Amino acid sequence: MPLEKTQRELDKIFEFSLDIICTIDQHGRFLRVSSAVNTLLGYSPSELTATTYLELIHPDDLELTRASIADIMNEGSSNRFENRCIHRAGKHIPMLWSASWDDEEKELHCIARDGTVKRQGELLRLSLQESNQRYEYVTKATSDAIWDWDLKKNTLFWGEGFEAIFGYPKNQVIPDLHSWTNHIHPEDLDRVVASVYAVIYGTETNWKDEYRYQRADGTYADVVDRGFVIRGVDGKAVRMVGAMHDISERKKSLKEMKQFADDLFVRNRELQQFAYVVSHNLRSPVANIIGISDLMGMEKDNPEVMEHCIENLKTSVNRLDQIIVDLSKILSVSDGSAEISREPVDLLEILQNVKADLTNNIDKSGALLHLPEGSFIIPSHKAYLYSIFFNIISNALKYRSTQTPEIMVNIQINGNKAIIKIGDNGIGIDIDKHGGDLFKPYKRFDFSREGKGLGLFLVKSHVTALEGDISVDSEVGKGTTFTLIL
After folding, report:
1. Domain for residue 126, yes or no?
2. End residue of a domain, out of 292, 308, 334
3. What is the pLDDT of residue 56?
4. Which site from 59, 407, 434, 458 is most exposed, i.e. has the minimal number of CB atoms within 10 Å?
5. What three-state secondary structure class fits 479?
6. What is the pLDDT of residues 113-148, one digit of tens each?
7. Does one domain contain both 301 and 367?
8. What CATH number is associated with residue 480?
9. pLDDT at 190 over 90
10. Does 44 map to a domain?
């Protein structure tokens, strides 16, 4: 009775087990197979009785299966192995086997179960591993700083480019959101963070913004940042991936191009003005020369008229020559293509030279020229400085008031720069009326004094060539002060 009960229990196990249970003889033939073989492989137990198990094995797995069975039979212990079995429908089913050899009965007792889930898991693991490897290769190959933000864990991963672009050692970067927000420029921070969360809590999937991001050395890079939001089945954002691209050089180039375009516009406008000035100033002496030439042709037999014509012709030619000389000066200071050579220059020494060259004018006007004491040396260009000082001081003498003229020069040195103030108590300039034309060529504001209107134009041009700055403070009837930063 106990034996019969045991047999009945064994039969139930064979009938209801979800795994395939089988007994195989030493020649590889099935002696008994459980009902699960029908569910898993599509065969009935009776079909497999007296057939060999090798007939069910995928051809590519036969060698591995034979070797595994041989090891089990030789060692007399249980062992596990995997292979693929051929389903009745022709498909291949991954199977997980556990087998033990009964040396006394010369039988192999086996249990096999469907390994599809495990196989799929293994394939998924390999796929993920391959994807991660590709992702790592991409982060190394790209010049962008790739990032991956897990919104649930609030962790932020940075790719290889983050250190290369911004200089932060990757092993010292804390993998949280602060590693990003802490380095956004304060003026951009609120706007950028708001734009990110607007996408996260909205329905959009793509995000893009442009802002300034601090490098490890404290400077800021201009970046364009793009991100993609990954959402769960409920539509909520669970992850965000993206890349930061450094556009600092591009923005610098655009800025330089804009500056170049602006300079070109100014130069073109100046060229038009210059063409007008040339046409206007040359017209009078040329017309005189033509008129005199015609008169000389008609009066060639009249000595008195001819002598008078020759004198007038000389005057017109000299006037024409002076205009050409003046225009040559304008062209020479307008050409900014040549780099200015600099050397240590003593400003006081140049001022003393200007004073010596203007001695006659100073004595005639009774002017007092006050120069500072000491040595004021900066790297600059002697000829340009002389021209600047000469034209400002000679203008102060020319446009003096009826009272005793006084010209005061003060100098302050700040590093390689000098702040120079040249003030007078002359007739002054109506800045509101003439301020816009003050440094233009051939602009004169007091025709009672002799002049050509080139002095302040040359001053401004030379200051610009020296990459300096000039400003004017003036009041009619009280005087004028020029402030130079050179």
Report:
1. no
2. 334
3. 93
4. 59
5. strand
6. 888 877 676 766 665 566 555 555 555 556 688 889
7. no
8. 3.30.565.10
9. yes
10. yes
Q: Is residue 125 part of a domain?
A: no
The percentage of the chain sitting over the pLDDT mark of 90, rounded to a whole number, equals: 32
Residue 388 lies in a domain: yes
Centroid of chain to Cα 88: 64
Candidates 157, 154, 168, 145; CA nearest to 226 is 145
* Amino acid found at 175: P
* Closest alpha carbon to 68 in 42, 91, 98, 39: 98
Asked whether the predicted pLDDT for residue 32 surpasses 60, the reply is: yes
Tally the domains of the chain.
Answer: 4
CATH of the domain at 328: 1.10.287
pTM of the complete model beyond 0.70:
no
Torsional class of 11: left (φ above 0), alpha (ψ -120 to 50), beta (otherwise)? alpha
The one-letter amino acid code at 360 reads: N
Domain, as residue range, for 8:
2-114
With beta carbons less than 8 A apart as the criterion, state whether 242 and 146 touch: yes
Mark residue 292 as left, alpha or beta (left: phi above 0; alpha: psi -120 to 50; beta: remaining). alpha
Higher per-residue pLDDT: 359 or 110: 110
Match 């001053």 to its residue by tokens: 459
